[in-house]
Amino acid sequence: MNALDVLKVLAGAVIVLAMTVNIVRALVIPRARWTFFSQVVDASVDAVFRVLAHRFASYERKDQVLAAQAPAVVLVQLATWLLGYELGYSLALWPEVHHFLAALRETGSSMFTLGIAYTPGNGSTAIDILAGCTGLVVVALQIAYLPTLYGAFNRRETEVTLLSARAGTPSWGPELLLRTRYGVSVLTDDLPELYNRWERWAADVAESHSNYPVLVRFRSPQPLMSWLIALLAIMDSAAMLLSVSPSRERIEPRRAIRMGFTALRQIGEALGITVETDPDPDRPISLSFAEFEAAVEQLKSVGFPMDRDANEAWPHFRGWRVNYESLAYELASRTDQVPAPWSGPRRWPAKMIPVRRPATRYPSKAALLKPVAEQPGVPPSAT
C-alpha cells in the first residue's frame, strides 16, 4: 500500500467518523445541538422551499408548500448520512478493489445487505461488515427517531388547537382578554389555570424543540394556526393583564411569560440565534405604542377591568415584551409563520391576517315564539 492508498483510507475513516459523530449528536445524545452538518442540510432545504413558496401570493398556498419542508429535512438528512458513509467506506475500500466505481458498488451492496458484490481479502471483508452494520443501525435509529418527533408534535398541537377557541385564529394576545368579556370561550377566572397549562406546555416545547430542532419546522395542521404565534399570544395576553390590571396580579401569568421566553431562548440557542439573556426593560421594542393603545381601547370598549390607561401601562408592557419580542420575531421570520397581529415581519411580502372570529348566532324571536310542533326538524311524536 503506497502513500496515496494510505491517504484514501484515512480520508474514508475521517468521513465515517464525522458521520457517526453527527448521528450520535442528532439522534442519541439528549440536550445536543445541531451540528454544522445539520445546519447546512436545513439551510439547503429551506432555500429550496423558500423559492417554491415565494411563487404563491396567498399565505394558505405558501403554508401548503411549506408543510412538506420538515419531512424533507428529515429525509435529506438521512440520505446525506447514508451517502456520507457510502463515500467514506468506498474510499477505505478503494485500495483493495483498485477501482473507485467498484468500491462504490461493493459498499452499497454491503450497506443495504444486498450481497451482490464482494472482494476476497481480510481488509475488504472487515469494511464490508462495518458497512453492513452501519446501514442497519442508521436506518433503525431513524425509524426510532420518528415516533419521538411525532409524539412531541402531537403534544404541542393539542394546546395550540384548544387556544384557537380562546384567542382567535390566528391567535392574538389581546383577543384572549377580549373574549373574557364578550364571549363564552374563556372566563376571567379561567385565566390562571390556562396560564398554568401553558407554563408546562412551554417547558415541554423547550425540551423537545431544543433537542430536536427540526420540530421547529413542523407546521400545524391548519394553515392559520402556529405553535409560535400561540405562545406569543399567551405571553402578550399575560403581559397586558399584568400591565393594565395590577390589582388583579397573580403569579400564574408571570410564570407563563418567564417559561415562554425561556423556551424561546433555549430553542434560539439550539438554532444558533444570538440570544440576549438580560435585555434592558427600558429598551424600545418593535411593537408601536399606537398598536398597544388600540388594543387597550378595545379592552376598554368591552368593559375589561383596568387600573391603568394605555400611557401608564405601556412602560410595564414594554418591560415584559422586551424579553421575548426579538426572538419570537426572528423565529417567525425564519420559519415563515402565519402573519398574525403583533408577530413581526416575514421574509416575503406578507399582509397581516386579522383575527377571525366566529359569527354570533341566536334563534330569531319569531322562531322562539313558535309552538314546538311548528319548529323545523321536530318529529310529530315529539308533540
Folded structure, characterized:
- The protein is mainly alpha-helical and 383 residues long.
- The chain folds into two domains: 3-144, no CATH class; 149-334, no CATH class.
- The chain is built from 14 helices and no strands.
- The protein has helices spanning 3-28, 36-54, 59-66, 69-97, 100-111, 122-167, 173-182, 191-211, 227-244, 251-270, 289-301, 310-321, 325-334, 365-369.
- The longest helix has 46 residues, at 122-167.
- It is elongated.
- The N and C termini lie far apart (99 Å).
C-alpha geometry: elongated
Secondary-structure class: mainly alpha
- N-to-C SSE series? HHHHHHHHHHHHHH
Strand content: under 5%
Q: Give the helix proportion (percent range).
A: 55-70%
- Please give the domain count: 2
Arithmetic mean pLDDT: 89
Number of strands: 0
Largest β-sheet summary: none
Distance between the termini: 99 Å
- Backbone CA Rg: 28 Å
Low-confidence stretches: none
Number of helices: 14
Quick gist of this model?
The chain has 383 residues and is an all-alpha fold. It folds into two domains: 3-144, no CATH class; 149-334, no CATH class. The mean pLDDT is 89.
Architecture blueprint of SSEs:
Elements: H1 3-28, H2 36-54, H3 59-66, H4 69-97, H5 100-111, H6 122-167, H7 173-182, H8 191-211, H9 227-244, H10 251-270, H11 289-301, H12 310-321, H13 325-334, H14 365-369
Helix pairs in contact: 1-4, 2-3, 2-4, 4-5, 4-6, 5-6, 6-8, 6-9, 7-9, 8-10, 9-10, 9-12
